[in-house]
Specification:
Blueprint lengths: L9 E4 L13 E4 L5 H10 L14 E4 L20 E6 L6 E7 L1 H13 L1 H4 L5 H27 L7 H19 L6 H17 L8 H20 L9 E3 L11 H27 L2 H8 L5 H6 L4 H27 L1 E3 L5 H14 L4 H17 L6 H16 L7 H18 L10 H4 L5 H18 L4 H9 L7 H11 L7 E5 L6 E5 L9 E2 L8 H18 L1
Antiparallel strand pairs: 1-2, 3-5, 4-5, 6-7, 8-9, 9-10
Helix pairs in contact: 1-17, 4-8, 4-11, 4-13, 5-6, 5-7, 5-11, 6-11, 8-11, 9-11, 12-13, 12-14, 13-14
Length: 552
C-alpha cells in the first residue's frame, strides 16, 4: 500500500454563483492551474542588463507660439522654410513646443559669419598670406560646389571642370587685353563661353557613361592645356596670360588689395551656394534623387526624364563655371597654365572627396582643408601633399561619403549594433527594451506590451496535452479554467491576421482564412486543407493559435 493518498479531483467553481448571477454550471471538474501572480513576480524581479548605446539625439526646442499667427519664412524662390520646424506636444509638461529638425541653415549662417570675421581673427604677422589663401579658398570652393552638382546631383563623372574655368579665364583675359573690355564684362562673357563649352561636352554625356566619359573629359582637359600652352596669342612664352582689367587697383596698399580679393571671393562662394540650393533643392534635384546611378530604368518606368534633368544641370553649372573663370581673370588680371595641370584636377577631386561628394558643405570643408595644407602650412614642404593623399585615402577606405558623412555612417553602425545586441537577448523582461522605451511617446502602449508578454508567458504553461484533448472533444461549451483562459486570450486578438473559417457550401467543407485587418482587402487563405465538420475546423484553428502562441 502507498503512504500517499490519491490526489483529490480539482473542481472549478464559478465565482458569480455566490450572488446567483452565474449562467451555466456552478461547478465543473477541471485541472489545476498555476497562480498568475507567480509569473508576474518572476517577470518583475528580472532586471535587464543595459548597454551604452550613445546619447539621445539632441534637438533645439523652444516654447510654442501660442495663439499668435506663425508666419513661416521661406527660401526664395523655393517653397522651403528657413528652418525645418515641427510642432509637437510634450506629454510630460503638457505644453506645446517647436522642435528644429534640420539645423544645417544655422550652421551655414554661423560658418559664413565666421568667414566674414576672418580678417579680424588672423594674426597680424600672417595677415597677407592668410588673406591670399582665403581668396584662393573662395574661388576653389565655388568651383567645387558647382563640380559637386555635376558629380553628385547629376551623376555625371566629368573631369573637365577646370578646363571650363581655364578656357573662360584665358579667353576673357585675351579680350580684355586686346579690346580693352572692363572687368565687369569679363564674368558675363565667361558665362557665355562656359555655356558653349557645356553644349560641346554635354552631347557625349548622353552616349557615354561613368569611366569612359571621365576619360573623355580628362582628354579634353589635356587637349586645351596643350593648345593654350603652345599658342603665342595666349602667352606661351610667359607662362600665362596677364594684363586684363581688374576691380582691384594697383595703387592700393597690398593689404587692401588682399582684403578686397578675400571678400570678393567670399561673395562668389555665397553665390555658388545659392546656385546649389536653387538646383539641388528644387524640382531638378528631386527628379535626380529619384533616378540615382544604376536605378535609371526604374525612374524611366515611373515617367522621370532624368536625362533632360542631368543635361540641364550640366549646362547650368557650365555657365556658372564660365562665370567663375571670368571672375578669376578679373581678380588676378589674368590666368596661368597651371589651372589645366593634372595636379589641379587631382587636388580638386581630393577636395570634394574629403568633404563628401554631393554635399555643398562637403565641398567647402574639403576645399578649406586642402587649401590650408597647401597654401598656409608651407613649412611642411612636400609632406603637405602626402597628408592630403593620406586624408583622401582614409576617406575612400573607411568612410562612405566623406567627413560630413561620418555622423550618418556612425548612426547606421550604432543602429546595426543595437539590433545585434537585441537579437542576442532571448529574455527581455518585457516586450520593450530599456533603450527602445525612449523612442516611444505613448507609455500606455509600453505597459500594455509588457502585460501582454507576461500573460503569454503564463498561458504557455497552460498548454498541456490534457487541455488540447479537452478542446478536441468539445470545442464549444463549458471548459476547464486553464482552457477557458487560453480561449479568452485568443478571442480578444486583433483583427489583423486573426483566423476564421470559410464555408464552401451549406454543409461544408471548411477552410482556414486570416483577415487582413484593412478595410476593402480580402482575407487570405491560410491552408489548403479542408475539414468536413465544424468541430474539426474549430480545433484546427485552435491548434494554429496555440502554435503561434508558443512561437511568440
Amino acid at each position: 500500500m502507498s503512504d500517499h493518498a490519491p490526489p483529490k479531483p480539482y473542481v472549478w467553481r464559478n465565482p458569480l454563483s455566490v450572488w446567483g448571477t452565474a449562467s451555466g454550471n456552478n461547478e465543473a471538474p477541471s485541472t489545476r492551474v498555476p497562480d498568475p501572480r507567480d509569473t508576474w513576480q518572476k517577470n518583475t524581479a528580472f532586471k535587464v542588463a543595459t548597454y551604452p548605446v550613445g546619447r539621445l539625439k539632441y534637438f533645439l526646442i523652444w516654447p510654442h507660439h501660442g495663439n499668435r499667427t506663425w508666419d513661416r519664412t521661406r527660401w526664395w524662390p523655393t517653397r522651403r522654410n528657413l528652418l525645418h520646424v515641427k510642432g509637437l506636444y510634450n506629454r510630460k509638461t503638457a505644453i506645446p513646443e517647436k522642435k528644429i529638425l534640420d539645423r544645417r541653415p544655422i550652421y551655414w549662417v554661423l560658418s559664413l559669419i565666421l568667414l566674414a570675421m576672418g580678417p579680424l581673427l588672423f594674426p597680424q604677422t600672417q595677415m597677407n598670406a592668410l588673406l591670399t589663401a582665403g581668396a584662393t579658398f573662395g574661388i576653389f570652393a565655388a568651383i567645387n560646389v558647382c563640380w559637386t552638382l555635376i558629380i553628385g546631383t547629376a551623376s555625371i563623372f566629368s573631369l573637365a571642370t577646370y578646363a571650363v574655368v581655364g578656357t573662360a579665364a584665358f579667353v576673357t583675359s585675351l579680350l580684355s587685353i586686346r579690346l580693352g573690355l572692363p572687368w565687369y564684362a569679363l564674368p558675363p562673357i565667361g558665362a557665355c563661353i562656359g555655356l558653349a563649352f557645356g553644349i560641346l561636352i554635354a552631347a557625349p554625356a548622353l552616349r557615354l557613361d561613368g569611366f569612359y566619359y571621365a576619360l573623355l573629359t580628362l582628354g579634353l582637359n589635356e587637349l586645351f592645356r596643350v593648345f593654350f600652352t603652345t599658342s603665342k596669342q595666349f602667352g606661351a612664352a610667359s607662362g600665362g596670360l596677364y594684363g586684363a582689367d581688374s576691380f582691384i587697383s594697383q595703387n592700393w596698399l597690398p593689404l587692401t588689395q588682399s582684403m578686397v580679393a578675400y571678400y570678393a571671393s567670399l561673395c562668389l562662394l555665397i553665390a555658388a551656394l545659392f546656385l546649389f540650393r536653387f538646383v539641388n533643392g528644387k524640382r531638378l534635384g528631386r527628379v535626380l534623387r529619384m533616378a540615382p546611378e544604376k536605378h535609371e530604368a526604374f525612374a524611366a518606368a515611373c515617367g522621370v526624364d532624368f536625362k533632360q534633368a542631368r543635361i540641364t544641370i550640366f549646362l547650368l553649372t557650365s555657365v556658372a563655371l564660365g562665370f567663375i573663370g571670368g571672375f578669376y581673370a578679373a581678380l588676378y588680371r589674368g590666368v596661368a597654365y597651371s589651372i589645366f595641370d593634372f595636379q589641379t584636377v587631382l587636388l580638386g577631386l581630393a577636395m570634394i572627396t574629403i568633404g563628401g561628394i554631393g554635399r555643398a558643405e562637403g565641398a567647402v570643408l574639403g576645399t578649406l582643408v586642402v587649401i590650408f595644407l597647401r597654401d598656409v602650412l608651407l613649412e611642411l614642404g612636400p609632406w603637405r601633399y602626402l597628408i592630403i593623399g593620406s586624408a583622401m585615402l582614409g576617406v575612400v577606405l573607411f568612410l562612405n561619403n566623406g567627413y560630413f558623412g561620418i555622423r550618418r555612417q556612425f548612426n547606421a553602425w550604432r543602429a546595426k549594433k543595437q539590433g545585434e545586441w537585441r537579437s542576442t537577448r532571448t529574455e527581455k523582461g518585457g516586450e520593450t527594451l530599456a533603450e527602445e522605451a525612449t523612442e516611444s511617446n505613448d507609455k500606455d502602449a509600453l505597459y500594455f506590451r509588457r502585460f501582454d508578454k507576461v500573460q503569454r508567458d503564463y498561458l504557455k504553461g497552460l498548454i498541456t496535452s490534457e487541455a488540447i484533448e479537452e478542446h478536441r472533444r468539445q470545442p464549444l461549451g463549458q471548459h476547464s479554467e486553464g482552457l477557458e483562459r487560453i480561449l479568452l486570450y485568443f478571442r480578444r486578438a486583433k483583427l489583423e491576421d486573426k483566423y476564421a473559417l470559410h464555408r464552401a457550401g451549406p454543409q461544408g467543407p471548411y477552410k482556414i482564412i486570416a483577415f487582413s485587418g484593412v478595410r476593402g482587402v480580402s482575407p487570405r487563405l491560410v491552408d489548403d486543407r479542408e475539414f468536413g465538420t465544424l468541430d474539426e475546423a474549430y480545433h484546427a484553428v485552435f491548434m494554429r493559435r496555440v502554435h503561434d502562441l508558443l512561437e511568440s
